[in-house]
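Complex record, two chains
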Amino acid sequence: MAAGVAAWLPFARAAAIGWMPVANCPMPVAPRDHSKRQDELIILNVSGRRFQTWRTTLDRYPDTLLGSSEKEFFYNEEAKEYFFDRDPEAFRSVLNFYRTGKLHYPRAECIQAYDEELSFFGIIPEIIGDCCYEEYKDRKRENAERLQDDQEDKKDFKPPNMTFRETIWRAFENPHTSTMALVFYYVTGFFIAISVLTNVVETVPCGSTSQKDISCGQRYTVAFFCMDTACVMIFTVEYLLRLFAAPSRYLFMRSVMSIIDVVAIFPYYIGLVMTDNEDVSGAFVTLRVFRVFRIFKFSRHSQGLRILGYTLKSCASELGFLLFSLTMAIIIFATVMFYAEKGSSSTKFTSIPASFWYTIVTMTTLGYGDMVPKTIAGKIFGSICSLSGVLVIALPVPVIVSNFSRIYHQNQRADKRRAQKKARLARIRIAKKGSSNAYLQTKRNGLLNELLDLTASEEEQQHLNKTKSLLESQHHHLLHCLEKTTGHDFVDEQLFEQNCLEGALQPYRSRTPSTSSLEGMTGTCCSRRTKRSVPLPIANAPASHAHPLALTHTLPKSPGLQELSAINIQCAEKQIHSSSRSNLNMQTNEVDRRNCKQQKVTTAIISIQTANTGSPAEDGGHGLPNRGASVVTTTSSNIIKVSAL
Amino acid sequence: MLNLDGLEMIAVLVVMGLFIKVLEQFGLFEPVGGEDSIEDDFELSTVCHRPEGLDKLQEQSKFTKKELQVLYRGFKNECPSGVVNEETFKLIYSQFFPQGDSSTYAHFLFEAFDTNKNGSVSFEDFVAGLNIILRGSINDRLNWAFNLYDLNKDGCITKEEMLDIMKSIYDMMGNYTYPCMQDDAPREHVENFFQKMDRNKDGVVTIDEFIESCQKDENIMQSMQLFENVI
């Protein structure tokens, strides 16, 4: 029921009194309005902008957020208002919907944002009024196309295991995927050009030996034949490969491009089969014409051609209309001209079909002048014919042009988006990496905090604590819990790969951890690791910190384990941090830099099992020495172990 | 004179026709009878009616100020021009009865509300009508109902009038009812009604017969109280 008429419900109920005297059965009991509250103003505070309306206005649509009790969740007791942390601009149209019963779509609003607002307030978009519905649907369709484009682009990801056939098909469809495909692409393009050129040059007259001029094709028969053979070979091979690699051969054979391919190479084979037989040579010549279809093979290489073809296909109805109207006009004017010119002597307008030629030439403003009206009536009608020709042709052309423009721009947009996609993906990847790096960094910081708790001063501690917001710390706690649950740790990629390589080489440590015995062993493995890690480009902050390797080993920590860790600070001159979070981590570096006198300070995570652990959990024991392992040798070969005990 | 054959004549005529069209375009040549087409589109539809003051209405009716305010707000929302014409009225009323066709009954209602017979119901008429229905005595209400049934306002209800009313009420039900609507249901209903109401069996029901019979019927008296608290 529309909003406005809800206010008339009392009237409709009152008018029901007209049924009472004629009623057969007794009436049901009327519902009582227990709340008995007067109509009151309620305040809706949307991001600071206050809207006020009657309560009954909102009650008109009880299945939306504002009309139901759901809005009580947003009630602010102190201010006695309902607070919504949403966009006030979009809220305007939402509120107007309650007031007038019509939902309008503001054109300046982004379609996705608007949809989200509507779904938040529980309003279905289908009730948008007729005035705005078309615009809404158009925008929604564009958005869906854009999303679909993105989806298709995702398919470009190479799935890891592809059969040979699929690889070839992919190489054919997207030449940019591999170098071989690109080479093949350019080679075929070159040969298409050669083939077309050959066909053209073949007919040029080059020199005359006998009385008549002979074309180049007849003069250098062998050379042209060889060129033709070579091109056809390439095309045949390409076609067969495509046929082999196509996921659905039947569909492929039906597609336009494959038909063009077949038509392009067929004449050659037919020519091979047929000899220079006189009777079939006419047909042979016709077949040669089909060789020109090779030029259409270029459409695989040129996007513009494809767009043009697509445009023509999509404007089929306009083209059909153009053709129909032209035909009508031609017939009319040809008839008129014929009868007008009938009187004059030696006229060229011998019949109506003969006049067709004149009409077409005139309407398309060609005006060859081979047929000219001589009578006055003929001239008058001829001039009307040419004027109307211009109009008839000019009418559908803008439609075709606008179609072409739209499709072309769509394509441009798709290309632009694809180009920007790389940057977008890189950004997303960096953000993700930043987040995971932040976690890894925090783990070390967290450990560092324990160290500093014991040694450092208050201010440094506060400084460290500042760098983490509550959200971050809760997030990191969550990740930490996950680690504990599974018994594995998060590491970053490079170290993971290193560990994978070294996994085989890593001998199991002895169960008795003692720092001295640790040193030697860890020196070898970890130093190897760090030596490898050092030359890595410092794109991610953790790469410079070799410590994560300590964390790669499984560690269900036994309770008595005391971990001391310090940060491996590689205070290189320039650290290119890709995300701001790693810059935060940079600060902690600098904090500790005060403690180091040297440029490169490496610290070690030394885990020392305290005496009271009765049961050395095997893994713990196993993990321990590796944990203690991080004695990192740097290029400066200055190992400073900071152990706090 | 020029020696023109048939086709040439036609050609010349065509040229002259085109020439006239061109002159028309320049406004130099006014064809006959073109002036009044402009004026038709401009309807003076912006009639705005303002009701009398809130205080006056309060005196005339038994509604409180707040109730009048609520009533007027709803009224004005749907009819910004201040009056309801029959089309709008039918439209509004049909929103409440989506299954059937309420246009006939709405027409009768409109006639009942439009006391001064000027084809539109203003807010005062509205309030006056509601005043009787919701705040009037039982007799007043019965009078109002009688007025509704008496289509030609001659003081008595004939069987045909009642049949029209009944049919319009049954139309509001629509097609999908249980039990299935028989074609003669309205007629039967009218027969029942007349049997009850028509004391002297003269085929018409006068106002006194109507009020008397209704006062005797418990159900009717009960249902008259039903919509007391609509506003």
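Note: Chain A has 26 helices and eight strands.
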